[in-house]
Here is the input.
Amino acid sequence: MPLSTRRPAALRVFDRVVRGDARTVLERLPAESVHLAVTSPPYNVRIEYRGYSDDLPPDQYLEWLKGVWRALHRVLVPGGRFVLNVAPTSIKDFRPIHHDLSRDLRALGYIMRTEIIWYKQTMGRRTAWGSWRSPSNPHIVPSWEYVLVFSKGQWRLPGDPAAVDITAREFERFSDGFWQIPPERRRKGHPAPFPEELIERLVKFYSYRGNVVLDMFGGTGTVAAVARRLGRHYLNIDSSAEYCRLAAERIRAATPPPDAPIPPPPRSVAGPRATAGSPVSRPSAPPAASAPAAR
Ligand SMILES: C[S@@+](CC[C@H](N)C(=O)[O-])C[C@H]1O[C@@H](n2cnc3c(N)ncnc32)[C@H](O)[C@@H]1O
Here is the structure.
């Protein structure tokens, strides 16, 4: 067979850290293999990440992300969830980016379940008042972020009732959509890591033990580490070798409780080379990057 027509081998789906471009890696995963994806993409607000610039023109940024959302849709199981965290844009160049993203995701066929307001309790450190004590041009300071929640194809996610681990008290608290959680103060080598509490709530609320949880812009592996600690399988993708290295270290340290080992993933997801509970894999060689701005 000529090389150009050969399909790349499918990647094993879970318990891996993969260095590569999010969309390219997603396109190599088997269809319907992920139960929950939680991510925050680069915000396009000029944050200094390792290896690329975070300031694409807004329409190019949204177009690039659309390719990732399309690739993700194929990979989610029916009823699989996608949780997208996004911060408001800067005060001066304000654009309702969360509206743009919701519109794009719904146009791609995702069901929008809800939005959660993550209130970060950061008003003590505010600096930008605009016109102080005057209605001429005052500023609202974004002290929150959006957590937009989608489903693929159907609202329900089938699962084993014995693999539910959320308590009644947690369920009551988390189902109130205003989440007061301070931002992560320990940077762990990354400019914008998730606080673990945010991810714990999402993983427990939206997935079963033994499910596969993905972050395709995984940074230093907060989603993967929390997922593993809570008895889920993980897949962490990031384009930076350094962040992947830090993520692998962190995930290795995040062990599930010994009395509650991680259930094997459903057979449909396991694939021929999968072994439940396999160790954190070394970051693989990056698939060829195809997104703009060295992403
Ligand atoms: C907002 S950060 C995510 C941080 C993460 N939530 C954490 O807790 O560490 C976005 C990440 O996307 C990564 N990234 C940028 N372009 C990418 C691409 N094309 N494919 C995969 N990852 C990419 C960056 O290296 C960065 O770590």
